[in-house]
Amino acid sequence: MYPLLARRSHLAVYLLLWMLMGILLAAILALQGGLPWINGLVGGLPMAVAYSFICLSAWYVARSMPLAGTGTIRVVVTALAAAVVSAAMWLVLGRGWMALVATRWPPAQGARTFASIQALLFAAGVLLYLLALAISYVLVVYEASQAAQRRALQGQVLAREAELRSLRAQIDPHFLFNSLHSISALTTADPPSARRMCLLLGDFLRQTLALGGADRITLSREVALIENFLAIERVRFGDRLTVAVDAGNAGDCLVPPLLLQPLVENAVTHGIAHMLEGGTVRVTAGHDGGWLRIVVDNPCDPDRPRRGGTGVGLANVRARLRALHGEEATLLAEERSDRWYVEVTLPAAAGEPA
């Protein structure tokens, strides 16, 4: 649709500008043709409005011959031909209108007036149509630029969603590998515990599958998932593993599903597992000043075997936060006084999960 026809306000401004052209035409009829001003207005204003609608065809000419894919000669020839045809059509309509309203003044005067200025009107009609065509080309280029920006934005959104799906898909195999390895170790040493761990694992996987394609869940629901995961780990570690979870005032804040699971899993696998006396995994959260801060910390053995790199868990969480929030979200991981400390900071958003 022509942009001016999409909104009434745009059309009103367009017609107002052409009404000003009609006043100018009325002045020409009055000063050049010797008509009274009232007669000039009766003749000039309707002619200007009529030509305003004829010039709307310039939009379709510009759309049919984009500058990028059309030769210069063809564009120039077509533009001139369209301008000449439109101006000639305007003169025919103008002559008919002047004849129709000639009863308002002596017919000879009206015919003489129109004949004296028709060459000027034709030249003005050609120039006005070319101006309308130039403006139409600007609008076409602007529309194409906006469409390209929308496509680029949609491409970025799709790429981000694909990255998030890929990162989300990494979590389950990594977690399953560790869980199955633990179950395998228990099958000979403690078969009842291995069976119980299998049942808990099945319940946990059912809950994660129930998340479907949700982009966000509430922190309280994420905490419930973490508690179910830690119930699985307690089968293996028994009293060596204790948990302290406090979502504070942030239970309604939205977070990506399974954001904390890799962090808690690291706390157990690379922290509690190396402590003979075990320890407590603490998960605390708070909402303050538009930011959500979540801390996971656990005791760690200073003499534990060191791994190279950041590991799958931390790398996955960092990548998901970057894909969702860019530079606004951060993840800090460091050792503090024989405790491993991980802090996640991201913009706080409360409400119904998407």
What keyword list fits this structure?
single chain, 354 residues, alpha+beta, Heat Shock Protein 90, 5-stranded mixed beta sheet, two-stranded antiparallel ribbon, 7 strands
* CATH arch. level architecture of the largest domain: 2-Layer Sandwich
Sheet with most strands: 5 strands, mixed
Distance between the termini: 34 Å
From the helix content, strand content and strand pairing, which structural class follows?
Answer: alpha+beta
Number of strands: 7
Q: Would you give the CATH topology of the largest domain?
A: Heat Shock Protein 90
Proportion of beta-strand residues: 5-15%
At the first level of CATH, the class of the largest domain is Alpha Beta
Q: In CATH, what is the homologous superfamily of the largest domain?
A: Histidine kinase-like ATPase, C-terminal domain
Describe, in plain words, how this protein is organized in 3D:
The chain has helices spanning 3-6, 8-31, 37-54, 57-64, 72-100, 107-189, 191-210, 219-237, 261-269, 311-325, and strands spanning 217-218, 241-246, 254-255, 279-288, 291-299, 330-336, 339-347. With 354 residues, the chain is an alpha+beta fold. The protein has 2 domains: 3-153, no CATH class; 190-347, 2-Layer Sandwich (Heat Shock Protein 90), CATH 3.30.565.10. The strands form 2 sheets. It has a 5-stranded mixed sheet. A two-stranded antiparallel ribbon has the order 1-3. A hairpin with a 2-residue loop joins β6 (330-336) and β7. The chain starts with a helix and ends in a 7-residue tail after the last strand.
